[in-house]
Amino acid sequence: MKIKNIINSVMAIAALLFSFNLSATEPTTKTKKDMKLIIVYFTHSGNTELAAQKLAEVTGSPIVRILPAEPYTAADVDWVNEQSRCTQEHLNQTMRPAIKPLDVDFSQYDTVFIGFPIWWHEEPAVIRTFLDTTDLKGKELYPFCTSYESPMSEADATLQKGYPTLNWHTGLRLPASADKIKAWIEK
C-alpha cells in the first residue's frame, strides 16, 4: 500500500511538472486590444489634425504631430505651380525635408497610425522623412489620410512600394464614423 501511494505521488508530481513545462513553452500572442497604440500625423491646413483627434477618440491613443523643420507656406503647397515645394518634392522622390525631432520612444508601441494629407495622390515627402528616420520594423502600421477627392489606395501603393519591409495595413481616408474606424482596425 505504501509503494502504491509513493507511485501515485510521483505520478502526480510528474504530471504537475509536465503541465508547468507546457505552459512555459506555449507562445503568447497579443490581441489587438492588448497592443499599445500611437498616432503620428502631419498636417498643413489642420484637416489631418482633426482626423487624428477623431482617431484618438476612438482608440484612446496618444497623438504626436510631425512638424517640418521649415514650415510649408501657402505658396509651397500650390500644386498648380511647377516650382512649388510640394510639386518639386513629388517630382523628385529622393527629397526628404527635415523634420523636428519627435519625443517618442517607438519601441514602447506595437501599432502606429500615420496620418497625412494627400498631395499629388500620395503621402507628402515629410512622411517619407519620418519613415526613413524612425525604426518601425515589427510594428503594425495603419496609414490614414485626408483628401477631398483622392482615394487612400494610391498612397497605400506608394507606401508599400517605398517601404516594402514594413507591415502595412490598408489605409483609410478620414473623416469616417467611429464604427468604420473600429472595423478598419479590426481587419
Tell me what you see in this structure.
This protein is of the alpha/beta class. Strands 1, 2, 3, 4, 5 and 6 form a six-stranded parallel sheet that branches. Residues 3-31 have low confidence and may be disordered. The protein has helices at 2-25, 47-59, 85-91, 125-133, 152-162, 178-186, and strands at residues 37-41, 63-65, 111-117, 140-146, 167-168, 172-174. The longest helix is centred in the first third of the chain and has 24 residues, at 2-25.
Q: What are the salient characteristics of this protein?
A:
single chain; 187 residues; alpha/beta; globular; disordered N terminus
Write the layout of secondary structure elements.
Layout: H1 2-25, E1 37-41, H2 47-59, E2 63-65, H3 85-91, E3 111-117, H4 125-133, E4 140-146, H5 152-162, E5 167-168, E6 172-174, H6 178-186
Parallel strand pairs: 1-2, 1-3, 3-4, 4-5, 4-6
Which oligomeric form is depicted?
A: single chain
- The unreliable regions are 3-31
Query: Largest sheet, if any?
Result: 6 strands, parallel
Helix/strand/pairing category? alpha/beta
Mean pLDDT: 84
The percent range for helix content is 25-40%
Radius of gyration: 24 Å
Shape: globular
Strand content: 5-15%
The number of distinct β-strands equals 6
The total of helices stands at: 6
Order of helices and strands: HEHEHEHEHEEH
Spatial separation of the terminal alpha carbons = 60 Å
Brief overview, please?
This protein has 187 residues and is of the alpha/beta class. 39% of the residues lie in helices and 14% in strands.
